[in-house]
Design goal:
This protein has three helices and eleven strands. By secondary structure, the chain is of the alpha/beta class. Helix 2 packs across helix 3. The mean pLDDT is 92.
């Protein structure tokens, strides 16, 4: 059983992470079910285990929190759906790479509900969209990141998770090099011209969840 929890308002970062870790501890002890938390944070930057100091270009702009998840610098803020995924990877095959691919499949299936084609790229965790309306110097469509993924495992239970840009202030990403990638931008559903609300995205996430896991390609 997977419990879905909507946290209202803007969830303060450190207390929310502490609560998430408490739930993971309860899961490892068999006292809690899988859970997915849907929330928004106030503006902040997080530094994953691979974060490079040079990629924090405006360290005084927002609070910066080192975290134990994989990945580099990420922005969270209003208008971005954060999805904390506390799932039993042990019961899902004990294949971390496949689990991350399943998370990507879930995001792609969710975006498809709005006729947005999400794509993955070798060597880049997360989900990307092409921007034919914004061609690069070579005249080809540029790419922009619409969703980030960063997880940590504890006794085969995952935590942290996914962020999907619905309508954040994209200028807030300027204080970091998002995920260490300098030559591509970021976008959101509203930036793509779609009047999608947070409730719309949540409904799509719930509708596509079950069919997005267990299909990781070899």
């Amino acid at each position: 059983m997977t419990d879905w929890v909507h946290l209202p308002g803007l969830s303060p970062y450190l207390p929310t992470v502490a609560a998430m870790e408490g739930h993971v501890a309860a899961m490892t002890e068999g006292r809690a079910d899988e859970a997915i938390w849907l929330l928004e944070h106030p503006p902040l930057y997080t530094a994953g285990t691979s974060a490079k100091p040079a990629d924090l270009t405006d360290p005084d702009r927002f609070p910066v929190y080192p975290v134990g998840r994989g990945g580099q610098y990420t922005y969270h803020g209003p208008g971005q759906r954060v999805i904390y995924t506390m799932l039993d990877v042990g019961a899902r095959g004990r294949d971390v790479r496949c689990f991350v691919r399943d998370l990507e499949n879930w995001v792609i299936a969710t975006l498809a509900e709005f006729n947005v084609k999400g794509e993955i790229r070798p060597g880049r965790v997360g989900v990307w969209v092409q921007r034919p309306d914004r061609p690069g110097p070579d005249g080809q469509p540029s790419e922009a990141k619409i969703a980030a993924i960063g997880i940590k495992l504890r006794r085969w239970i995952s935590f942290h998770g996914i962020s999907i840009n619905v309508e954040p202030d994209l200028a807030h990403f300027d204080g970091i090099v998002p995920c260490g990638i300098r030559n591509h931008g970021v976008t959101s559903l509203v930036d793509l011209g779609l009047p999608v609300t947070m409730a719309d995205l949540d409904a799509a996430l719930m509708a596509t969840f079950r069919r997005s896991f267990g299909i990781c390609p070899v």
